[in-house]
Amino acid sequence: MSIGSVKSLGSLDPRAIYGTGVQEQTKPGFADKLQQAIDQIDGLQKRRDAMVEDMVAGGPTEVHDVMIAARESQLAFELMLETRNKLLEAYQEVMRMQV
Questions:
Q1: Looking at residue 99, what is its pLDDT?
Q2: Are 67 and 55 in contact (CB under 8 A)?
Q3: 51-75, pLDDT tens digit by residue?
Q4: Do residues 30 and 37 touch, judged by C-beta distance below 8 A?
Q5: How far apart, in whole angstroms, are the C-alpha atoms of residue 23 and residue 11?
Q6: 73 burial type by CB count under 10 A (0-12 exposed, 13-18 middle, 19+ buried)
Q7: How far is CA 21 from the centre of its chain?
Q8: How far is the CA of 41 from the CAs of 18, 33, 34, 44, in angstroms?
Q9: CA distance 58 to 71
C-alpha cells in the first residue's frame, strides 16, 4: 500500500461524511411534490380538452384516443381528490388529539 493512498484518506472531511456543518442540497418538499402532481393533472385535462376540440372541429383525431385521454384525466383527478380527502382526514384526526 502506498503512502499516497493513506494521505488521501486523511483529506476526507468528517462534516461532509456525517452531514453536519455542510449545507445539504435542498430536496423538493411535500408542497413541491404536490404542486408537481397538480400541474400534471392540469396538463392531462388540457390535453383532453384540446383533443375534444380538435375532434369536434373535424380534425384527424381518433375517437378512441379522445376516450382514452378523457378516462386518463378523469382517473388522475379522482386520485387527486381521494388523496386530498385522506390528507384532510389525517389533519382532522391530528387536530382531535388530546395534548
A1: 80
A2: no
A3: 999 999 998 889 999 999 999 999 9
A4: no
A5: 19
A6: buried
A7: 29
A8: 39, 13, 11, 5
A9: 21
